[in-house]
């Protein structure tokens, strides 16, 4: 593990940051700042958009009107206050968005050059799934779409992934599986997906963008209809009694309603399956009977099942199932014809694995715990 403290970027007080903005927002800024008419604002906005999202510009040096622009705007990145690289190549970034507001995002390299970036949509989470570290963090605020996009921008800088485009990408996929419940911040998540997926920009295709939800049923249809993103459901239990306990939002939207919303997800097909995430908790949800119940529950739904070994955190009330148990569970599912990859825990040494993210007020304690874990 290496630990680098990236130097803080200069303060940009009073200047509006154009990086992270949508096309429309950039045009509106230009219109208001320079009194441009709609058409001119859109044209100039489109140029600036390409500088930001294709070239990765961090200043106005190469742009026309640079002096005027520099007087009003910046193209800045959020401050990366901590960057940790795991022995397995996973990189975790702690990003400071404002005073006392920090989120984490995690880059997970895949085979070859490809890799996924796990972004956060909220600081903390208002839901309190009992196995999730983020759920124990109280401080919550929704991120703006620009703050979501700027996580991607900061990581593209670090991966030296400019200009955008091309086939041989290190950052090939985006997953909304960091801190927070994306469907409680859907307006901003949608806008961020629009920016990230635009062809003449970062251009990560919507099929390579996955949004994971604990089951906010009333927002699921809108997510599919308006973003065409891939859907992942944090299922974790096959009956309401247990799911009520593990994923408390189930009390509001029980499994039957959740599965109906899945069946109705726009664009669902064998080529566009829903991923069901199932965290393996020793003696809690990992029996053969539950594997069979899972198969029955998913009948008729184009699905992939992702078995996630539970990632422990200090004070967690669960243990991870044994490897043999996870394999036994996976066997039943794959014999029923489902792909059932077991997600290899990534970045555990830097506390970056699923459900281990937690920031801000408890950051110090988390880093102490990390040191303890490293010593194990
Ligand atoms: N709030 C959203 C997205 C963030 S959580 C959701 O719940 O889907 C991303 C994934 O990590 C979810 O499937 C979540 O259930 C899983 N997760 C949370 N804590 C975990 C832990 N300690 N070990 C393994 N997976 C965990
Ligand atoms: Fe929130 Fe997802 Fe964690 Fe549940 S699993 S507490 S919804 S981040």
Can I get a quick summary?
It contains eleven helices and 14 strands. It has 376 residues and is α/β, with parallel strands linked by helices.
Question: What can you tell me about this protein's structure?
Answer:
- The chain contains eleven helices and 14 strands.
- The chain folds into two domains: 20-74, no CATH class; 79-375, Alpha-Beta Barrel (TIM Barrel), CATH 3.20.20.70.
- It is elongated and about 65 Å long.
- Residues 1-11 and 360-376 have low confidence and may be disordered.
- The chain has helices spanning 23-34, 38-55, 66-72, 145-159, 186-197, 217-227, 240-246, 255-263, 288-297, 323-335, 363-375, and strands spanning 2-4, 16-17, 73-74, 79-85, 91-98, 101-109, 115-118, 122-123, 141-142, 173-176, 209-213, 230-234, 274-280, 303-309.
- By secondary structure, it is an alpha/beta fold.
- The longest helix has 18 residues, at 38-55.
- A hairpin with a 5-residue loop joins strand 4 and strand 5.
- The strands form three sheets. Strands 1-4-5-6-7-10-11-12-13-14 form a ten-stranded mixed beta sheet, covered by helices on one side. The chain has a two-stranded parallel sheet with strand order 2-3.
- The chain is 34% helix and 18% strand.
- Iron/sulfur cluster (SF4) binds at residues 125, 127-129, 132, 134-135, 180-181, 214, 234.
- Iron/sulfur cluster binds next to loops.
What low-confidence regions span 5 or more consecutive residues with pLDDT below 50?
1-11, 360-376
> Which ligands occur here?
S-adenosyl-L-homocysteine, iron/sulfur cluster
Give the CATH superfamily of the largest domain. Answer: Aldolase class I
Give the end-to-end Cα distance, rounded to a whole number of Å: 15 Å
In CATH, what is the class of the largest domain?
A: Alpha Beta
The largest sheet, given as strand count, sense and whether it forms a barrel, is:
10 strands, mixed
Give the strand content.
15-25%
CATH architecture of the largest domain, by name, is Alpha-Beta Barrel
Question: In total, how many beta strands?
Answer: 14
**Spatial order of the strands in the main sheet?**
1-4-5-6-7-10-11-12-13-14
Quick one: overall form?
Answer: elongated
From the alpha-carbon coordinates, what is the Rg to the nearest angstrom?
21 Å
Mean pLDDT: 88
Q: What is the share of helical residues?
A: 25-40%
Helix and strand pattern = EEHHHEEEEEEEHEHEHEHHEHEHH
């Amino acid at each position: 593990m290496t630990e680098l403290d990236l130097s803080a970027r200069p303060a940009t007080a009073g200047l509006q940051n154009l990086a992270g903005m949508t096309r429309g927002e950039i045009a509106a800024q230009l219109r208001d700042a320079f009194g441009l008419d709609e058409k001119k604002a859109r044209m100039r906005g489109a140029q600036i958009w390409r500088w930001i999202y294709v070239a990765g510009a961090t200043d106005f040096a190469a742009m026309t009107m640079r002096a005027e622009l520099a007087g009003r705007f910046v193209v800045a990145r959020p401050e990366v206050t901590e960057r940790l690289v795991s022995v397995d190549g996973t990189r975790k970034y702690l990003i400071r968005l404002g005073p006392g507001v920090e989120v984490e995002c995690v880059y997970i390299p895949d085979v070859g050059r490809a890799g996924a970036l796990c972004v956060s949509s909220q600081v903390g989470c208002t839901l309190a799934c009992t196995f999730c570290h983020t759920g124990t963090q109280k401080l919550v605020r929704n991120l703006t779409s620009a703050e979501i996009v700027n996580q991607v921008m900061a990581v593209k800088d670090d991966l030296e992934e400019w200009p955008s485009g091309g086939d041989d990408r290190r950052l090939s996929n985006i997953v909304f599986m960091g801190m927070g419940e994306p469907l409680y911040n859907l307006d901003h998540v949608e806008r961020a997906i629009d920016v990230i997926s635009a062809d003449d920009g970062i251009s990560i295709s919507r099929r390579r963008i996955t949004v994971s939800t604990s089951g906010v049923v009333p927002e699921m249809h809108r997510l599919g209809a308006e973003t065409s993103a891939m859907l992942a459901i944090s299922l974790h239990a096959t009956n309401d009694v247990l799911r009520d306990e593990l994923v408390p939002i189930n009390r509001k939207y029980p499994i039957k309603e959740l599965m109906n919303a899945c069946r109705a997800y726009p664009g669902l097909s064998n080529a566009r399956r829903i991923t069901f995430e199932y965290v393996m908790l020793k003696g809690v949800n990992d029996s053969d009977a539950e594997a069979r119940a899972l198969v029955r529950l998913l009948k008729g739904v184009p699905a992939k099942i992702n078995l996630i070994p539970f990632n422990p955190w200090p004070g967690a009330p669960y243990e991870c199932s044994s490897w043999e148990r996870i394999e036994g569970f996976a066997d039943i599912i794959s014999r029923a014809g489902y792909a059932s990859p077991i997600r290899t825990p990534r970045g555990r040494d830097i506390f970056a694995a699923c459900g281990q993210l937690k920031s801000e007020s408890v950051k110090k304690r988390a880093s102490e715990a990390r040191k303890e874990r490293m010593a194990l």
